[in-house]
Specification:
The complex is a heterodimer of chains A (373) and B (500). Chain A is built from 14 helices and no strands. Chain A is mostly helical and 373 residues long. Chain A has one domain: ABC transporter involved in vitamin B12 uptake, BtuC (Orthogonal Bundle), CATH 1.10.3470. Chain A starts with a helix and ends in a 32-residue tail after the last helix. By secondary structure, chain B is an alpha/beta fold. Chain B has 3 domains: 230 residues, P-loop containing nucleotide triphosphate hydrolases (Rossmann fold, 3-Layer(aba) Sandwich), CATH 3.40.50; 187 residues, P-loop containing nucleotide triphosphate hydrolases (Rossmann fold), CATH 3.40.50.300; 64 residues, no CATH class. In chain B, helix 3 crosses helix 4. In chain B, the strands form 4 sheets. In chain B, strands 13, 16, 17, 18, 19, 20 and 21 form a 7-stranded mixed beta sheet that branches. A 6-stranded mixed beta sheet of chain B has the order 6-7-8-3-9-10, sandwiched between helices. A 4-stranded antiparallel beta sheet of chain B has the order 2-1-4-5, covered by helices on one side. Classes of the chains: A mainly alpha (373), B alpha/beta (500).
C-alpha cells in the first residue's frame, strides 16, 4: 500500500516534469530562452508584494469558481456554463450598484446587497442550465455552452446599449462606480481582504460540505449512480438542481468580486476565462477540495507571472495557458497510464473492468478507488 | 475443436482465482463447469476467451499451443464467449450490433448480413427483428443475439457463462436444443453454471471447481449429492416455504392498466397481505417487471388504482411509496441498486434517516460493522461495493432495507412491502438460501414480499401465491402448493395445464 502511494507521487511528479519539458520545447520552437522565460514568470508573480497581491486578486475568483465546480463535479455534472454564471453575477452586481449608487444608503449595505445580487444572478443562470437538463433533456454541457454565449451577448448589449457611457459606448466598459462603492482594499493596492476571505470561506464550506455532511454524501451518490441513489431514497433531480444552484452562487460571487473589487465597472470580458480555468484546476486536483487553494494559487501565479513576458521577452502571455493546459493534460494522461498499467483487478471476476467497456470514462468525473489526490 | 488447458494460474491480489487448472475438453461435447460464486469459473473462461491473461499456463487447440491476448484473438481462433451480462450496444440496431465485430471492408454488406442473420435466427427458432434496437430486448433475447453473432463470426468453441439465468423455461429448452445440435455438428461447448439441474441435464462431462482449484471431472450418470459435495465440500439443505397466516392487506392493485413501448397489461388486480410471499413467474419481458415497478411507484398505471394500506397512492412517486414502507430491489445490483465508488459504510449512511447535517463517522462505521455481521457480508466497512461478489452485493442490498425489528431505531413507518427483481440471480446455493432466510425473517414480522424470478423452482419453493405472466396477460393468483414445475412451465409458455 505504502509503496504504491510513493509510486503515485512519482507518476504525478513525472507528469509535471513532462509538462515543463513540453513547454520548454514550445519556447525553443519560438526561439525564446526557456530558463529566462520561467524565471520571468517566477519574478513576475512573486517578485514583489505588488505582484503577489495581483496574484491574490486573481486567486480569489479562480478559487471561488473551483469551489463551485467541485460541487457540480461531485454530482457528476459538467458545468461548462460556469463562464456565463460568472458573467451574470457581474451583471446583477452592476445592476444593483447602478440602482443604489445614488440612494445615499450606507456603502457597506450597498456593496453587500450588490454581492448578494451577483450570487443570485449566477445561481439563476446555473438553475437555468439545470432546468434545461432536468426538464428539457438538454445535456448540461450543451445547455451551459449555449447559455455562455447568451450571457456574453447580454453583457455586450448592456455595455453598448442601456448602460453605455455617456457620449460613446466603449469596449472599456461602463462608467466606473464611485470609489466608496468598491470593496475596501488595502492601501495602494486593489487587493481586498474581504474578497480573499470570501474565497477562503467558500472553499472551506465546500470542503466540509463534501466531506462531512449527509448532503455531500448524497450528492456523491447521485453523481456516481443516479438510479441507485433514487432507489436509496435520494430525490435525484432536486439534488442535481441544488448542486447547480450552489455552483452558480459561487460563480456569481466571483463575478461580483470582479465588478466590486477589481474593475469597479462592467467590462466585456468580465469573466476573464476564470470559469474554464476553474474546470482545469478541478480536473488537475482530481476533484479533491483539499488541493483547490494551493493549485488555484499556482495557476493564478502563472497567469500574473506571464503578463510581463511580452514586454521582456517579446513572448505572448498565453504561455501561461500553454503551461496550464499541458499540466492538466499530462497529469490526466499519467493517471490514465497508471490505471492502464497498474490495474489491480478485484477479487470478484465480475467486476474486472475491461479497457473497452468503461462507458463512464468519457462522462463525468470518477475518482479512483483510493482517496489519494 | 479440442480445447486443452494446462496448469492455468491466475491471482488477483491475494486471491488465487485459478490454481493450476488442467482441463481437456474433446470436440463435439458439451462440458459443464460447475462451482459456486467465486470458485474461479468465470476467471478461467475469461482467460480462455482472451478477456484477461493467465499468469502462467498454456492453452491448446487441437493439440496446438496458442496465445490469446484479446477477445479478438480468441474469436480469430474460433473461441467465442457468451457473457453472463450480454456485452452489446443497447442504443444500436440488432443488425449493426451483429455486423460490428466482423472484420471487413469499409462498407459492410448489410444485405448479405441481414439474410444470414435471418437464416441463423430461423435455424434456432429465435424471433429477433434485425431492425429493432438492442435496448428494447430482454436479457434472454440479447443472449440469443450474442449466440447468433458468435456463430456468424465463426466460433467453433462456444463458452456460455450462466446462460440460463436470464431466460424462461421455453427459452431454456430452445437453448438446450440449440446447444445439442451444435455439439452434434462437432462444436465444443463449455457451459458454465452453478445450476446442478441444467448441468446434469445437458453436459456429457462436468468439471467442478472450488476455491480456484479443480476438484474433479465427472461423467454420467451423475449423482447430485456428490456434485454438491464437490462444489461446497459439504452437503447443504434448502429452506422451505413457511406458511404464515397472511394478515391485513398491505398493497392493493385495483384494475390497473400498464403500458410500455412493447407491452400492455390490461386490468390486473391483486391484493398483497402482510407476511405473504408472492412470486411473479413468466418469460422475461412478459410484463412482470412493469407490474412490479407499478407496485413501487416507478411506473405510473395508465388506469386503475394503487392503494397502500388504505391510502391511494396512484401516480405518486417512488419517494412517497418509500415513505409508506415500500422497498424496491432491482435486478441489476451494481447498475441500479448500489453506488459504485461508495463504501459499504457510506451506503449504510445513505440508507439511514438523516440526523442533523454532519455525518457521525464513528457511529456510521459501528453501524456498518453491525450490519456486515448481521448480514454476513464478506467485506470491510471501507470496501467499495464494486469490490464485493454478486452474493455479497445482494446481501448489502438487503442490509440497506430499513429494519423493522430494531425498536431503538424504529422507522416511522415499518417496512410493509419488499419488491425484488431476481433476488438470487447469479448467486450460489448458499447465498440463495441465506437471502431467503433473511426475507423469511421479514415475513415473520409482517412484511410482504413480491418477487420476480426466472427460476421456477425458486418461485415454487418460496412463494405462497404465484402470478403467471404471459405476453402481458396476468393469471389470477395461484396457490403455489398446488402447482408443479411442469404445470408452471406450461402456464408460462401460454398453455393451460391439463389440471391446475
Amino acid at each position: 500500500m505504502h509503496s504504491s502511494r510513493w509510486f503515485n507521487l512519482l507518476v504525478q511528479a513525472g507528469a509535471i516534469v513532462l509538462a515543463l519539458l513540453f513547454t520548454t520545447l514550445v519556447l525553443l520552437a519560438s526561439n525564446a530562452p526557456p530558463l529566462e522565460a520561467f524565471w520571468n514568470i517566477l519574478t513576475g508573480s512573486v517578485g514583489s508584494w505588488g505582484k503577489f497581491s495581483d496574484v491574490l486578486i486573481s486567486w480569489v475568483p479562480l478559487l471561488l469558481v473551483t469551489a463551485g465546480l467541485l460541487v457540480t463535479f461531485t454530482t457528476g455534472l459538467w458545468n461548462i456554463g460556469i463562464e456565463g454564471q460568472i458573467t451574470l453575477g457581474a451583471i446583477f452586481t452592476t445592476w444593483m450598484l447602478r440602482t443604489l449608487q445614488d440612494s445615499g444608503w450606507n456603502p457597506a449595505l450597498v456593496i453587500s446587497l450588490s454581492i448578494l445580487a451577483g450570487m443570485a444572478g449566477g445561481a439563476l443562470w446555473a438553475a437555468l442550465a439545470g432546468a434545461l437538463k432536468t426538464f428539457g433533456g438538454v445535456n448540461e454541457i450543451f445547455g451551459g455552452l449555449g447559455l455562455n454565449f447568451v450571457a456574453t451577448a447580454l453583457n455586450l448589449w448592456l455595455i453598448f446599449g442601456p448602460w453605455k457611457r455617456p457620449g460613446v459606448a466603449s469596449m472599456s466598459g461602463t462608467v466606473p462606480f464611485d470609489e466608496s462603492l468598491a470593496l475596501p482594499a488595502l492601501s495602494g493596492s486593489r487587493l481586498s481582504l474581504y474578497a480573499v476571505a470570501m474565497a477562503v470561506v467558500a472553499i472551506l464550506i465546500v470542503y466540509f460540505l463534501l466531506k462531512g455532511t449527509y448532503f455531500g454524501l448524497r450528492l456523491k451518490a447521485v453523481g456516481r449512480n443516479a438510479k441507485a441513489a433514487y432507489l436509496l431514497g435520494v430525490p435525484t433531480w432536486q439534488y442535481m438542481m441544488m448542486s447547480f444552484v450552489i455552483c452558480g452562487l459561487f460563480a456569481g460571487m466571483a463575478g461580483a468580486v470582479q465588478v466590486s473589487s477589481v474593475y469597479h465597472r462592467l467590462i466585456p470580458s468580465i469573466s476573464s476565462g476564470y470559469g474554464f480555468l476553474g474546470l482545469l484546476v478541478a480536473m488537475l486536483i482530481n476533484y479533491q477540495p483539499v488541493w483547490a487553494a494551493p493549485v488555484a494559487l499556482f495557476f493564478a501565479a502563472l497567469n500574473i507571472g506571464s503578463i510581463q513576458l511580452p514586454v521582456v521577452l517579446k513572448l505572448d502571455s498565453t504561455l501561461a495557458g500553454v503551461l496550464q493546459g499541458t499540466l492538466v493534460l499530462f497529469v490526466l494522461l499519467a493517471g490514465g497510464a497508471r490505471q492502464k498499467f497498474m490495474r489491480k483487478p478485484d477479487t470478484s471476476t465480475s467486476s474486472v473492468h475491461h479497457p473497452d467497456s468503461s462507458p463512464s470514462a468519457a462522462r463525468g468525473p470518477k475518482r479512483e478507488t483510493g482517496e489519494k489526490p | 475443436m479440442q480445447v486443452e488447458l494446462r496448469e492455468i494460474h491466475k491471482t488477483f491480489g491475494k486471491v488465487h482465482a485459478n490454481d493450476g487448472i488442467n482441463l481437456n475438453i474433446p470436440a463435439g461435447t458439451i462440458a459443464g463447469i460447475l462451482g459456486e460464486n467465486g470458485a474461479g469459473k468465470s476467471t478461467l473462461m475469461k482467460i480462455l476467451s482472451g478477456f484477461i491473461q493467465a499468469d502462467s499456463g498454456d492453452i491448446l487447440l487441437d493439440g496446438k499451443k496458442i496465445i490469446i491476448k484479446s477477445p479478438a484473438d480468441a474469436i480469430e481462433h474460433g473461441i467465442g464467449m457468451l457473457h453472463q451480462d450480454p456485452l452489446d450496444f443497447p442504443p444500436m440496431k440488432l443488425l449493426d450490433n451483429f455486423i460490428l465485430g466482423r472484420k471487413g471492408g469499409l462498407f459492410p454488406d448489410r444485405g448479405a448480413a441481414e439474410r444470414e442473420f435471418r437464416q441463423l435466427a430461423a435455424q434456432f427458432d429465435f424471433s429477433l427483428d434485425p431492425h429493432a434496437y438492442v435496448d428494447t430486448l430482454t436479457v434472454g433475447e440479447r443472449q440469443q443475439l450474442e449466440i447468433l453473432r458468435l456463430l456468424w463470426l465463426g466460433a467453433h468453441v462456444l463458452i456460455l457463462d450462466e446462460p440460463t439465468t436470464g431466460i424462461s423455461l421455453p427459452q431454456k429448452e430452445k437453448l438446450f436444443a440449440t446447444l445439442k445440435k451444435l455439439a452434434a455438428q462437432g462444436m465444443t461447448l463449455i457451459f458454465v453454471s452453478h445450476k446442478l439441474e441444467d448441468v446434469e441435464f445437458l453436459c456429457s462431462r462436468i468439471a467442478v471447481l472450488r476455491q480456484g482449484a479443480l476438484t474433479g471431472v465427472v461423467e454420467p450418470p451423475y449423482s447430485t449429492d456428490r456434485l454438491v459435495a464437490m462444489m461446497f465440500g459439504k452437503a447443504v439443505s434448502f429452506g422451505g416455504r413457511t406458511s404464515t397466516k397472511p394478515g391485513a392487506a398491505v398493497l392493493r392493485l385495483e384494475h390497473i392498466w400498464l403500458e410500455d413501448a412493447r407491452l400492455q397489461i390490461k386490468d390486473a388486480s391483486l391484493e398483497v397481505r402482510a407476511g405473504e410471499v408472492i412470486g411473479l413467474a413468466g418469460m422475461e419481458g412478459s410484463g412482470q417487471a412493469m407490474f412490479l415497478q407499478s407496485c413501487a411507484g416507478l411506473l405510473r398505471p395508465v388506469n386503475g388504482k394503487v392503494r397502500l394500506a388504505g391510502s391511494d397512492l396512484t401516480g405518486a412517486s417512488y419517494q412517497t411509496f418509500k415513505r409508506h414502507g415500500v422497498a424496491y430491489l432491482p435486478a441489476a445490483r451494481l447498475e441500479q441498486g448500489l453506488v459504485p465508488g461508495l463504501t459499504l459504510t457510506e451506503h449504510f449512511i445513505l440508507s439511514e434517516e438523516m440526523r442533523g447535517m454532519f455525518i457521525d463517522r464513528e457511529k456510521a462505521v459501528k453501524l456498518a460493522d453491525e450490519r456486515i455481521e448481521t448480514y454476513n457480508i464478506k467485506g470491510m466497512p471501507a470496501s467499495p461495493v464494486e469490490s464485493l461478489s454478486g452474493g455479497n452485493q445482494q446481501r448489502t442490498l438487503l442490509a440497506l432495507l430499513p429494519r423493522s425489528h430494531d425498536a431503538a431505531r424504529l422507522p416511522k413507518v415499518p417496512l410493509n412491502l419488499i419488491l425484488l427483481e431476481h433476488p438470487t440471480r447469479g448467486l450460489d446455493v448458499e447465498s440463495t438460501i441465506y437471502i431467503w432466510s433473511k426475507l423469511k425473517e421479514r415475513c415473520a414480522q409482517g412484511t410482504a414480499v413480491v418477487f420476480i424470478s426466472a427460476d421456477l423452482d425458486e418461485i415454487l419453493q418460496y412463494s405462497d401465491r404465484v402470478l403467471v405472466f404471459f405476453a402481458g396477460q396476468v393469471s389470477p393468483p395461484l396457490d403455489a402448493g398446488q402447482l408443479t414445475v411442469e404445470q408452471l412451465g406450461q402456464l408460462i409458455g401460454g398453455k393451460e395445464p391439463a389440471h391446475a
